[in-house]
Amino acid sequence: FWRSSNVEEEGQGLELKLVQIVFRHGARTPISRLPPSIEQATWSSDLVKTVPHTLIDYRVVSLDGGAQPPSPVEDSYQKHGPHKGGARWGQLTTLGQQQMFDLGQLLRKHYVENNRFIDPGYNPQQVYVRSTNIKRTVESARCVLAGLFGNSQSDREVIQTSTAEEEIFYPNRENCQAMRPLIKTAWGLLDTALPGYREDRLKLQHILGIQEARQFNIFGLRDELTARKAHDLPIPENLAALEDVVEQRATQCMAALVSGVEDGHSHALRLSTGPVINLLTQNMQRAQNSENCHKLHLYSGHDTTLIPLLKALGIFDDRWPPYAAHVTLELYQDAKKNNFVKVLYLEEEKQVQGCSAVLCPFEEFKEAMATVALSHKAFWENCKIDQKKASQITV
């Protein structure tokens, strides 16, 4: 995060103008179920108790300020019924709530206490919050706000959400038709594109008692193992021995699905995160020329939000983003109105691919992102057309 010593090294008189943070939700219960051959974990109500100091007075609204839209993703979880023990699918746990509260307190330390960038109390003119319309991400945003501002604010805090049909903060394959054949193609290439993957896949499927189907849900397996480990729940010995293999292969597969198996900024990557890159860039553009913009933007999302974003920025470390992982984009301006972007991941400064330094001139950053950024209009036009023609529409 921002430190005065770093700024002095880069140049004198830099003013922090805008902070945007895209984060993954906190620890949660699994969103898939392992085959019957694997003993179910018990997700009891004790693991999902509400943490009192994360409770705030808030409301969830649509992007235009209306009523909260329906959530078909959340509805789909409930169709499965509860986990053994009673907890819901994908439910933010007590641990997850505390993780997000801790993130909020960290942001308070950096942007309230250390440099007084924003007011110590919630100010809707300064702070903008958006979440995907899923309970765990909305509740994660709530916990971050509680850590950042406390739980006794005079203004009711607002979290905005999009409809599922227009969601951009995860790869929206349900509503972006052009994404489906790209994902199908990537799935079909994994066995040959990733050396040794087929052998590992077959080994895992044998343990799980799954027939030799190519589209083995390694993400569900990783999700289950990670959730159990975070909450100190037992992991079967035969799977525990292959935990590192599952982690490595799941990460490789997800990176391939959201960005394609070819090098560079592929069309798959543009559809996975192009509108997010465009939104973040446009926010920075506005902040340069106006004093009336929000100073802090908080975006509550998923691992599938962060992986393509990290890939687009050229800073993906080939590791699955942990619970509460966050990407920070800071915009600075010098006395001559020159603007610079600094990107941090998990609190470490990163040099964006295509930038000449960590503190990257804004126009240089914008040019580096031009190959992946898609405007809202261009994104949805790309979603509806043949992928061979899609690269022609960029604005």
Could you characterize the architecture of this molecule?
The longest helix has 23 residues, at 267-289. The chain has helices at 4-10, 72-78, 94-114, 135-149, 179-193, 197-208, 218-230, 237-240, 243-259, 267-289, 303-313, 362-369, 376-384, 387-390; strands at residues 15-24, 58-62, 127-131, 157-161, 296-301, 326-333, 339-345, 348-350, 360-361. The protein is 42% helix and 13% strand. β3, α4 (135-149) and β4 form a beta-alpha-beta unit. It folds into 2 domains: 4-173 and 266-382, Phosphoglycerate mutase-like (Rossmann fold, 3-Layer(aba) Sandwich), CATH 3.40.50; 179-259, no CATH class. The protein starts with a helix and ends in a 5-residue tail after the last helix. It is built from 14 helices and 9 strands. By secondary structure, the chain is of the alpha/beta class. Strands 1, 2, 3, 4, 5, 6, 7, 8 and 9 form a 9-stranded mixed β-sheet that branches. The chain is globular.
Low-confidence stretches: 1-11, 390-395
Instruction: Please write the CATH class name of the largest domain.
Output: Alpha Beta
Biggest sheet architecture: 9 strands, mixed
What percent strand?
5-15%
Question: How many beta strands in the DSSP annotation?
Answer: 9
What structural class do helix, strand and pairing data support?
alpha/beta
Q: How far apart are the first and last residues' alpha carbons, in Å?
A: 32 Å
Mean pLDDT: 91
CATH superfamily of the largest domain: Phosphoglycerate mutase-like
CATH architecture of the largest domain: 3-Layer(aba) Sandwich
Using only C-alpha atoms, the radius of gyration works out to 21 Å
CATH topology of the largest domain: Rossmann fold
Percent helix, as a range, is: 40-55%
- The helix count comes to 14
- Morphology: globular
Counted up, domains total 2
Give the ordered list of helices and strands: HEEHHEHEHHHHHHEHEEEEHHH
Pfam family, one: His_Phos_2
Organism: Branchiostoma floridae
Region (Disordered): 67-86
Protein name: Acid phosphatase
